[in-house]
Amino acid sequence: MKIYLSVFFTLLVTAALGANAAYEPVVATAVPNAATQRMLLDRHNDPSFGGKTNQGFAATTLLTKEDVERYRANMASIQSVFGAYQNWNAVVFDPDGTDQENEAVFAVLTDIGYRKEDEDIQANGWTTAKARAFSSCLTGSAPNGGVLTAGANYVEHSLCILWLSQFTEEQDYFEQFPALPEGQFYHRWLIDFGLLDSLYHEYFHHYQKAHTLDRVFGFDNADFNHPEQNAYLPWWWIEGAGQFGSWFARDYWKSIDHLRYLNPDDPTYAGYWESVDWGTPAPNAGEKYNSLDDHITWSIDQLNSTFFFAASQVQNTPNKIGGVLNAGVNDENCEGWMAGPSDGWYQGDPRRGQGFESNCPSIIFAAGTQFIAYKSSWQVALRDIPADYYELGFWGAIEKHLGLTELEFYAEFNALLRSVDASTISKNYAPPGWKIPDADIADVVDFPSIRYYGKKTVAPSNPGMTTFSFDVDESLDAEPLTDGLLVIRHLFGFSGDALISGAVSGDAGRGDSGAIAGYLADAGLELDIDGDGESKPLTDGLLLIRYLFGFSGDSLISGAIGSGAERDTAEEVEAYIQERVPVQ
User: Fold this and answer.
1) Which among 208, 254, 544, 548 counts the fewest CB atoms within 10 Å?
2) Tell me: the pLDDT tens digits for 1-44?
3) How many CA atoms lie within 13 A of 155 on its CB side?
4) Could you count the other beta carbons within 10 Å of the beta carbon of residue 395?
5) Residue 494's CB: how many other CB atoms inside 10 A?
6) H/E stretch holding 160
7) What does each C-alpha distance from 74 to 41, 174, 248, 253 come to in angstroms?
């Protein structure tokens, strides 16, 4: 249902445009291409496909085995919630170490083609100095070239370059925190929890990126002349949606062995909190904790105060607060500030236009994701938007789930922050649905069940379906990486284990290789999708797997129609397959 705008709401739409008064909202659907098809065949966006064989890790020889296990335990806990996506790579690098000590790190950087285009690295390889200069988290690589140049060979990796100091007692600073006086070090609890929190945030970026597939992630590298190539994720959601590590940690930290020393209720507890010197600062934290639970509660309280922070800032009330967690406005007066389309770019980016150096955009960074949850649900804010933004773009996904265009979204956000008198509400006030739920994040947001692009879940019956069905394994679903793969392998002549390995659903009614081979052999020319008189893997098999991945139009049939085919249009091919799959 369309929203009928009040005069006030209309004014807010106009204000949200600001200097971009000629802005035309862009909602461009994806145009799947050869790179898309490759990523889907590689199961790039499948949360069940990542593991040791397709996720990279290496470390300096100075990292202890215990610290390697700390990294692995953190990642196992995080992936138990989000799912395991392939092509996540992390290395632990010593910027002060020798090239020999960092050799394993360089091997991963080379293997994934990180900065492969750098002429010096091409000629001379990696050194500690070069790795220090190009350290980043999160960064990545596309070793075979860009989407359009690599085409069917397109591969994409995420890379997190961690430094050894993030694991050691001797670390004298933590991320953006200032260096302490000589001989003074940040708290061990802060380093250990900070590593878990950082890995949560960066893996969340990997999760976000996995679901854009070949579309450009954010505004920074977008080609606005080709909107179909861009997902248009705004900066405030890219970063802001990854700020909920404390919600995750609240229900999982006690099951991570190396954090047991922070739990007074654990039988092995040895009095850590009683020995902490609170004279040493703990940036972005409270004071005098008795358990890590105290810090997590403090962090969640910060997240729950983002509405008050945002409202008090735009109203410039005497009781305003200057920031929450990683969002800060300092002493700037943000009265009259309006969120708008320019907030797609990162804070401080000159492309924002006039006032680009302002800290006021921290307001939507802090509050934007929770506004989505308030308007819909946490599952929409953190899972369903990513599920749809490859196909629809970010703002198309927002319109699907919230019923708001981009401009309406910003206008409603701006109006909500002015709907109450911030000088009369408490810091803990927020609209219903805004605050972090009391339940486990995994119970609120079912990340592993995301309906990612290319995943087709279908109902068990189609009244118009012929006797033959492309639900080859009888799982009641026709899916590309089971049924589609079985057909294309059969047409290539595979049999036995080579036919069915990794391509049969767990709930299949037909899972034996002999039964599947017999079923497909009996199908005969039912497999001749284009009607050219032959059933071939690179025409008929390709047409089926593309269809099951959701391809349509030219992207369905391009290069996959046999000579003299009876069915040579996308419409004819789609109709033929549709009659032979269960109804969606």
Assistant:
1) 254
2) 223 333 334 444 444 444 443 346 777 899 999 999 999 989 99
3) 13
4) 24
5) 19
6) strand 157-163
7) 29, 18, 12, 9
